[in-house]
Amino acid sequence: MQTPDTAAATPAPLDFDRSLEDVGNIVEFGHVNCRVPNQQLAMVFYVMGMGLTRDPYLATGVDLAWINVGSSQFHLPVGAAQVLRGVTGLVMGDLDALVERLQQVAPRLADTAFAFSRDGAQVDVRCPWGNRIRVHAPDPARFGRMALGMPYVEIDVAPGTAARIVHFYRDILAAPATVGQDGCGMYAQVSAGLSTRMLFRETAAALPAYDGHHIQIAVADFSGVHARLLQRGLVSEESNQSQYRFRDITDLQTGEVLATLEHEVRSMRHPMYARELVNREPSITNRHFAAGHEAARLRLTPP
């Protein structure tokens, strides 16, 4: 029988790091958008080679394709090639099958920038126009239960900018952000939803001119972020009621532009927020068909 003393007792503390469950204000990482000059070559690379899925419902014409990767996408409008100044990280379940597919499409992508190499549980790939993609095997220690998805986008930035980029995302986007250092140098890490993070890695290499590629995120405090950007003159496009854009990541003390990367910012009331995406299992073909197994598995089974 409980006594008043035992009923009011404080539960014993458990060894949980509750901060690991924090999401922050950026609640979704939606897509990476880079123009491609040739949509047929893009389909050879992204669908036949990478084994990803073209969205069957939206952007199904010949001038724009959306490529699903778990709960994120690549957007590929036709135009002069754009190259992300960095690396897009993916998680895929079968790297042996990925390498086999890439080998099969290699002749179709001759005389382009296409290339790939494998190092254990990682495959580094270049698209026909030079975009870098790093594909990892599922790893609960690094990527949680993700079996297919886009766990990070890594952007190259100038030396001495990582700490100030952290302040920008903390103060303007209200996103958890930290400075880190590894064998490759300093970087800023920004939480960008449940499963994705943005990394801004310092490099001494010369950075190419910004060519207009962009990323898309959704935020919970939509008006607050807008007000803080507007106060600093950073809103670059007032798209519609549920969306705006900004390009420059700045030093909050001096106004110096630290990096340029257009952000398409959506609200949680945007009609496509948290839209469920179709993802196929690329090993299922008409010759190796298994009814009920056409869809890719996005999450690992808990241990």
The total count of helices amounts to 6
Provide mean pLDDT, rounded. Answer: 94
Q: What global shape is seen? A: globular
The termini sit apart by 37 Å
Structural class: alpha+beta
What characterizes the major β-sheet? Answer: 8 strands, mixed
Describe the structure in your own words.
By secondary structure, this protein is α+β, with helices and mostly antiparallel strands. 17% of the residues lie in helices and 33% in strands. The chain contains six helices and 16 strands. It has helices at 4-7, 39-49, 95-105, 140-143, 162-171, 222-231; strands spanning 26-33, 53-54, 64-69, 72-77, 86-91, 115-118, 122-126, 132-136, 149-157, 177-182, 185-191, 197-202, 214-219, 235-240, 243-250, 257-267. The strands form two sheets. It has an eight-stranded mixed β-sheet, covered by helices on one side. Strands 6-7-8-5-9-12-11-10 form an eight-stranded mixed β-sheet, covered by helices on one side. Helix 2 (39-49) packs antiparallel against helix 3 (95-105). The longest helix is centred in the N-terminal third of the chain and has 11 residues, at 39-49. It is globular and about 60 Å long. The mean pLDDT is 94.
Give structural attributes.
303 residues, 33% strand, 17% helix, alpha+beta, 6 helices
